[in-house]
Amino acid sequence: MKKGQVQMGETIVILLIFIILVGLGFAFYARISKIQLAQEQFALEEQRAIQRVQTITHLPELLCSTDGVIANNCVDLYKVIANSNEGGVFNVNNVFYEQLFGFSRITLYQLSGNTDPQNPTTYILYTNEKGEEPSVFYFPVLLHDSSQNVNHYALLEIKVYR
C-alpha cells in the first residue's frame, strides 16, 4: 500500500468515528429532550387540574357560602347532591362544561360524616372520558352541610385525559 492510500483509509476511519459520535450525541440529546417534554407535559396537566379545582370550587352551582360570605375550597353538600345525578346541570349543559373541564372525570368523595368510613360516599360531578390513560390528581375540600351547619372533609378527584 502506498502512503496516500493509508492516509485516505485513516481519513475515512476518522470520519466514520466522527459520524458515529455525532449520531450518539444526537440520540442522547433526543432522549433527554423527550424526558424533559414528558415532565413539562405532566406539569401542564397538573396546572390544568388545579385550574379545574379552582373553577369547580368557585362555580355558583356548587359554591359554599354562609350569610353571603364565600368560603374557600368549600362546596355545598346539597348542591353537590343535586348536580351529581343524571339531571344535574353538569350533564344537562354538557357543551358548556366541556369547554371548562375538557376531557376529564370529576368525582367528590365524602370522607367524614359517613356511617362507614371505609366506603366514602361518592358523587360523580362530571364525566367526559376519553379512552386514553388519565393523570389523576386529588385535592382536599370542605363539604358544607347547610341543614346541620356542619363541615365534612372531602376529596376531589380529577382524572385528566390526554
- What is the global morphology? rod-shaped
Gyration radius, rounded:
27 Å
Major sheet attributes: 6 strands, mixed
**Total DSSP helices:** 4
Q: If you average the pLDDT, what whole number results?
A: 84
Hey, roughly how much beta strand do the residues contain?
Answer: 25-35%
User: How many beta-strand runs?
Assistant: 6
Poorly predicted spans: none
End-to-end separation in angstroms reads 63 Å
Helix content: 40-55%
**SSE topology string:** HEEHHHEEEE
Secondary-structure class:
alpha+beta
The side-by-side strand order for the widest beta sheet comes to: 1-2-5-6-3-4
User: How many domains, as an integer?
Assistant: 1
Word description of this protein:
With 162 residues, this protein is an alpha+beta fold. The protein has one domain. Helix content is 46%, strand content 30%. Strands 1-2-5-6-3-4 form a six-stranded mixed sheet. The mean pLDDT is 84.
